[in-house]
Write a structure and sequence with these properties.
This protein has 488 residues and is an alpha/beta fold. The chain contains 21 helices and six strands. Helices cover 53% and strands 7% of the residues. Strands 1, 2, 3, 4, 5 and 6 form a six-stranded mixed sheet that branches. Helix 7 crosses helix 9 and helix 9 crosses helix 10.
Length: 488
C-alpha cells in the first residue's frame, strides 16, 4: 500500500519528532497510528527499514481503481466524497495509495512541503495569532499558511506550556496565566472575603480528615466507619487525642457530641474503679479459672450473684472467653477410601440385588451390629451363609475393632471344604479394608465384594438378619448370655 520511500520518510520523521506518533501522522498525512507503530516496531527489531510486502488485491480491479481516482480529481479532491459516491473502497488508505500510484502529486494533503524547512518561532507565533484572531476557520488558516490543520493547535500548546524558551514563549505563557484571573472581582475586600472562605473550607476539610484518621488509628474501626456512630466513650477518647491541634468547640460539632456528654465521658475515663467493682472483678476471674475456662457469663452470674452486665463487661475487658464444648462425634465404621474397593458382585445390571446361593459356601455376608444390654454396649460380627441364612461363625466384643471382624472370618474359614472359594460381601467399613482382613481372604481364596458408598440396601441381607435377631428379647438374652460366657 505504501512505498519503501514513504515508509522510510515516516520512520525518519517519527524519530525527528522525538517519537511522537500523533505529530508524525499530522505532518505527513499518512499512515494511521497503528500502522506507524508497527513500522517502528519492525525497524527497532531488525535495525533497518524493510520493503513493504505488496499484498494482492483481487477485490478491486484496475478499472475500479482508475475510476475512483478520476472521480477524486474531478470532484474537488475529497476522499470522503469519492468513497461515498463510488461506494468503495472501505478505507482512506486504499484510496490514497491509488491516487499516489495513478496520479502522483495530485493528492490534496494539508501539510508542509517535504522539502520545506520547519517554520521558525516567529512564523509559528504569527500562525497561532491568526488562529486566535479567528479570521477564518482552522482549516482556512492552515491552507493560507501551508501547514496542516493540527499544527497551529500543537504550536499553541507548546507556547502556553513554556516549551519554547524565548521572549515570545514567555509572553504567551504569561498571557495564559493572566487569563485565569480575568473572572476575579476587582474589589479588594471581596477578594479578601473569598480568600477567608477558601481557608475556612480547607480547615474544615482538614478537620474531617484528622477525625477519620484518628478513628482508624485509635478506635481501630474500618476506614469507612462514620465517626458519628461511635459511643460517647470512644468519642471522648478521639477528642482527647486531637485537643493539641484543634479547639474543643471545633471538635464537638465534628463528632456530633454535646459538651456535657463529653465532660461526663472524659471524667469516666480517668475515674478510679471502686472497691466493690474491684472485688467483683476478682470474683469473676476466680470463678472463671475454677471452671477451667468453661463458664460463660450466665454460669458466672449464677455462681457469683453479680449482675449480668457487670459480668459481661468484666469478662470483655479481661479477655475471658469460655471454651466451647466439643460435640462427641458419632461412631462410624467408614474411615475413608483407605484401600481399593472391590466390585459389588451382588448387584445386577438393572440395579436389583441378588443374594441367592444354590449351594453352601457360595456367598457369605457379614456386618457388625451393636446391642445395648445391662452390662453395656456389645458388638456382634457374624458370617452368614446365604444358602440357608444360618450364621457359620460369629464373634462378640465390647469394641468394634479389626480383631472382632477377623476372628469371625477365621472361624468361618475353618469350616471350608477343599475347593470352596465363596464370595464375602460386606459394607464399606474400615474393618474390611485393612491388611488383616485382606490377607485372610487371600489366604483362603475368598472373593471380596463390597457395597457402594452410602447405599445401605446393598447389604440388606445382613441388615435383615440383625432385624430379626433384635425384634424379640430372645436375641438380646442370647447375646447377653454369650457375652457372660466369654467373660467367664
Amino acid at each position: 500500500m505504501y512505498s519503501y520511500e514513504q515508509k522510510r520518510k515516516a520512520i525518519d520523521t517519527y524519530f525527528r519528532f522525538d517519537r511522537s506518533i500523533a505529530d508524525t501522522v499530522a505532518e505527513l498525512g499518512y499512515p494511521n497510528r497503528h500502522t506507524l507503530y508497527l513500522w517502528v516496531q519492525d525497524y527497532e527489531k531488525h535495525g533497518e527499514v524493510r520493503h513493504c510486502k505488496q499484498a494482492s488485491d483481487p477485490k478491486y480491479t484496475e478499472e475500479k481503481k482508475r475510476s475512483a481516482v478520476d472521480y477524486y480529481l474531478s470532484h474537488g479532491k475529497s476522499l470522503a466524497r469519492t468513497m461515498r459516491a463510488m461506494g468503495y473502497p472501505g478505507s482512506r488508505e486504499y484510496l490514497c495509495a491509488w491516487i499516489d500510484e495513478y496520479a502522483p502529486g495530485q493528492r490534496k494533503v494539508r501539510r508542509c512541503s517535504p522539502s520545506q524547512e520547519p517554520p521558525s518561532l516567529e512564523r509559528k507565533i504569527e500562525i497561532v495569532a491568526a488562529l486566535e484572531a479567528r479570521s477564518g476557520t482552522a482549516a482556512e488558516v492552515a491552507d493560507r499558511y501551508g501547514v496542516s490543520r493540527c499544527a497551529p493547535y500543537r504550536w499553541r500548546r507548546q507556547l502556553l506550556s513554556g516549551d519554547n524558551v524565548s521572549e515570545a514563549g514567555a509572553y504567551a505563557k504569561g498571557e495564559a496565566v493572566n487569563a485565569r484571573y480575568d473572572e476575579l472581582p476587582d474589589d479588594v475586600d471581596e477578594l479578601k472575603h473569598m480568600a477567608e472562605n477558601l481557608q475556612e473550607q480547607v480547615r474544615r476539610l482538614q478537620l474531617e480528615l484528622d477525625v477519620r484518621q484518628a478513628t482508624l488509628e485509635l478506635i481501630k474501626k474500618d476506614p469507612g466507619t462514620d465517626p458519628n456512630r461511635l459511643t460517647n466513650r470512644e468519642k471522648a477518647q478521639l477528642i482527647n487525642s486531637l485537643r493539641e491541634r484543634w479547639k474543643l468547640c471545633e471538635l464537638l460539632p465534628a463528632v456530633v457530641m454535646a459538651k456535657s456528654s463529653y465532660e461526663y465521658a472524659s471524667t469516666a475515663l480517668i475515674r478510679p474503679e471502686s472497691e466493690k467493682h474491684a472485688r467483683d472483678r476478682e470474683s469473676i476471674a476466680a470463678a472463671f479459672e475454677n471452671s477451667g475456662g468453661t463458664y460463660g457469663y450466665r454460669r458466672i452470674c449464677a455462681a457469683t450473684g453479680i449482675a449480668e452486665w457487670s459480668v459481661r463487661k468484666a469478662m470483655k475487658e479481661e479477655g475471658l472467653v469460655a471454651a466451647g464444648c466439643k460435640k462427641k462425634r458419632r461412631y462410624s465404621s467408614y474411615d475413608g477410601e483407605i484401600s481399593e474397593a472391590p466390585e459389588n458382585t451382588c448387584l445386577n445390571d438393572d440395579g436389583t440385588h441378588d443374594f441367592g446361593a444354590e449351594a453352601p459356601n457360595e456367598l457369605w455376608i457379614t456386618d457388625i451390629t451393636e446391642f445395648r444390654i445391662k452390662a453395656g454396649k456389645v458388638y456382634l460380627s457374624p458370617i452368614i451363609d446365604c444358602f440357608d441364612g444360618m450364621p457359620l461363625s460369629w464373634s462378640i466384643s465390647t469394641s468394634p475393632n479389626a480383631e472382632l471382624a477377623n476372628s469371625s472370618l477365621e472361624g468361618a474359614c475353618a469350616l471350608l471344604a477343599e475347593g470352596d472359594h465363596p464370595r464375602v460381601h460386606n459394607d464399606r467399613g474400615c474393618h474390611y479394608r485393612w491388611p488383616g482382613w485382606i490377607s485372610i481372604c487371600d489366604e483362603h481364596g475368598l472373593v471380596r465384594s463390597m457395597s457402594r458408598k452410602g447405599h445401605s440396601p446393598d447389604n440388606s441381607r445382613a441388615e435383615g438378619f440383625f432385624g430379626r435377631l433384635k425384634i424379640t428379647d430372645n436375641g438380646n438374652r442370647a447375646i447377653d448370655e454369650g457375652y457372660r460366657r466369654k467373660c467367664a
